[in-house]
Amino acid sequence: MKEFDRKIILEDGSEYLGYGFGSNCSRVLEIVFNTSMVGYQEIISDPSYTDQMVVMTYPLIGNYGITDDDFESKNLSIGALVVRDYNDMPSNFRCTKALGELLEENGIPGITGVDTRKLNRSIRDIGSRRALITDISTSLEEGLRIIAETPIPTDAVSRVSCKKRWYSRTANPQFNVVALDCGIKLNIIRSLNRLGCNVTIVPYNTTAEEIAFMKPDGVFLSNGPGDPQDVGCAIELVRNLRGKYPIFGICLGHQIISLAYGAKTYKLKFGHRGGNHPVLNLKTGKIEITSQNHSYAVDPESVKGTSLEVTHINLLDKTVEGVSCNADKVFSVQYHPESAPGPQDSGYLFNRFIKIMKEAKDNA
To answer: Is 19 annotated as a binding residue?
Structure first.
């Protein structure tokens, strides 16, 4: 049997051994799990996984390789990938390269052969922790020292946001949307384009004056990595824009909107990541199966003292999944209605954004 050549050291002193693929670099990251059965390419290219080591609960990863059309971001920023059984010989007529090749090209370490069932149960029971992916020769003592001495980053959004504005046009546009890029997924932009929106994507620190100069019909706040309280400029932006333009937020954008209205956020024990979270729409009574990816949630008690109302709740842990302020034409959801691949139950939210923008234009 081939000897293990890589391992994971967690800050609680536990170790998990395996075989390396992708890059051979060592990194200290937050370890989290994802319950999706497909979509590993979309996961590794989702900027929301910046600085995170993602453990896949589904055991077989790499089977269909990598395809050129399925990226969620042009630049990969995931920290590391942990799988039970990596397939280096994919079978897919659309495949252009193997998963391991892509990870190696982008300096992202992977590890296979790990007891992911045990590791995921540990994350579920104890919570997300810091972990080091490293060479098998690294001692436990040395690994724990490296973890303790590595600072926790707070600049994730600034690293994944675009540096200058760019455009995504569509045929016969009806609306102009400015999208604040905190780590935006490309399928969000594609979803807006399909509904007749020209989209201008701008950096996360764009000012209210700059957005007003663009004369948008609506403003979109994207998903992204890290603690929402680290993005103070985006929170202040919402305070300056609310009531002036229709605003729609997803994931981190949802948390930013909530903070801007005076609500509070907190870190979840192990977060929500995967395409199987049931969410109750309090307006319709319908249950939506949703795709999610976040570590933080909005405190429901803190919403009560604001002008926001809770519109959706998670049926697994009762966390806030959506808020709105009809007077200001603002709404947001914690989950991803555009998720690809993923459930399509929540696609109506983009239509709601279109409706609000149309009404605002008609009443202007």
So the answer is: no
Please indicate if the annotation marks 127 as binding a ligand: no
Q: What angle do CA 29, 33, 37 make, to 5 degrees?
A: 135
Average pLDDT score over residue span 56-70: 97
Q: pLDDT digits over 144-197, tens only?
A: 999 999 999 999 999 999 999 999 999 999 999 999 999 999 999 999 999 999
Residue 1 has pLDDT above 80, yes or no: no
CA dist., res. 243 & res. 233, Å (int)? 18
Rounded distance, CA 239 to CA 243, Å?
A: 9
- 336 catalytic per annotation: yes
In the residue annotation, 338 being an active-site residue is answered as yes
18 is annotated as contributing to ligand binding = no
The string of pLDDT tens digits covering residues 64-87 is 999 999 999 989 999 999 999 999
Q: Is 293 annotated as a binding residue?
A: yes
Catalytic residue among 251, 288, 294, 321: 251
Select which of 254, 272, 277, 336 is catalytic: 336
